[in-house]
Amino acid sequence: MRCRYCNSLLENVVIDLDEQPSANRLLTENELQLIKGGKKEHNSPLITYICGTCSLVQLGDTTKAEELFTEDYVYYSSFSNYWVQHARELVEFAIENFRLSSSSNILEIGSNDGYLLQHFVAKKIPCIGIDPAGKAAEAAKAKGVETMVSFFDEVSSSKLIQERGTFDFINGINVFAHVPAIKTFIASLKNCLSENGVISLEFPHLAKLVEHSQFDTIYDEHFFYHSLVSLNKIFLQFDLKIFDLRELDTHGGSLRIFINHLDNTKYSIEKSVEKVLNTELSMKLDQVGGFNELKARSQQIRDDAVAYIKAQKKIGKKIAAFGAAAKGNVFLNYCGIGADSIDFVVDDTPAKQGKFLPGSHIPVVSATEIINKKPDIIVILPWNLSSEISKKLKSNEKWQGELATFIPKLNII
Ligand SMILES: [Zn+2]
């Protein structure tokens, strides 16, 4: 395996999470029966490396993106009020700070259902989105958001420039870490950027992953785990510079970086950039040695979770879980916790109910099953939403039990 950016041989393992099925790929009843009948479930090794040359932290072997983000990719950003609000705040910030107006040209990569660009449409600022998911693009068009159905690459970016010219503001939220061809992606960004234009990219921050032992955020759709120290060098190689950033709470801790052309002096490099760079260097995020503690703590979390569940089962407790999302699947499969320990997982998304978690084969049900089956313990898998979820579960008068989270350490609520 070679580095997706600089082609150096990847030899330094950051963390090995064993063989895992695709983390977002829930199984149907039919598929589960085939597996029980002897069909092998598709697993691949989930190993993360750091490149010895460019320090880019990345997955080893992976499934191709085209297979992952197909038409039925179910995530619609506007389903979450939180994301619509998050988007509105960014749009307002960009309009004010980068002086965007009706004569500006805006592009969003991974524009989903238009959750962000709709705010530019409302301000009559010309914009276009690009997204490979056709159904999401249809939903965007219904909001008046023009959308090109495609991945963002050399061909589509040239077409965008041809049709619209270069762009004054280019935004990508949770898309940069998902694209395996990082070199092409950055080169295409550079080509699309107008002389005074600004690129804004948002992604989970490697420093937070390490600090809070968030090993379960590593899964087959996230090719990269970005640090500023690595990206700063990479963008400079394209004559681009990171001039400002924001540290955000999303996904357990994300970074939003602002980038412009290296020779553009309109924005000077803010102190925030140096601050995060220094923090990362003190954590040694540019060296394999910076990840030793993450490895040890992840194993400890696994041992604690397995011991707790085993002890509770032994005294006859019924255990359920909450949240049928990717990170929960990575966690359960890394720990080897399955349907023999956890009876069911509750999820509010109707499309997930009636299906089964990959690997662990735990059935996904609606919240009414908490009342019907009265589990003694509910394990909250999306730890980033644990305060919201625990508040909701604890306020349910018809259920009284224990809540447990395992990351960053075992916590019984
Ligand atoms: Zn490299």
Strand content: 15-25%
Largest sheet: 7 strands, mixed
And the CATH topology of the largest domain?
Answer: Rossmann fold
DSSP strand count: 17
> What is the top-level CATH class of the largest domain?
Alpha Beta
**What Rg, in angstroms, do the CA atoms define?**
22 Å
Structural class: alpha/beta
Helicity, in percent? 25-40%
Distinct small molecules: zinc ion
How many structurally independent domains?
2
Number of helices: 14
The chain-level mean pLDDT equals 93
What gap, in angstroms, lies between the N and C termini?
43 Å
Instruction: Write down the overall geometry.
Output: globular
Structure write-up:
The chain has 413 residues and is α/β, with parallel strands linked by helices. The chain has two domains: 67-283, 3-Layer(aba) Sandwich (Rossmann fold), CATH 3.40.50; 316-412, Rossmann fold (3-Layer(aba) Sandwich), CATH 3.40.50.720. The protein has 14 helices and 17 strands. The strands form three sheets. Strands 6-5-4-7-8-11-10 form a seven-stranded mixed sheet, sandwiched between helices. Strands 14-13-12-15-16-17 form a six-stranded mixed sheet. It is globular, with a radius of gyration of 22 Å. The structure holds zinc ion (ZN).
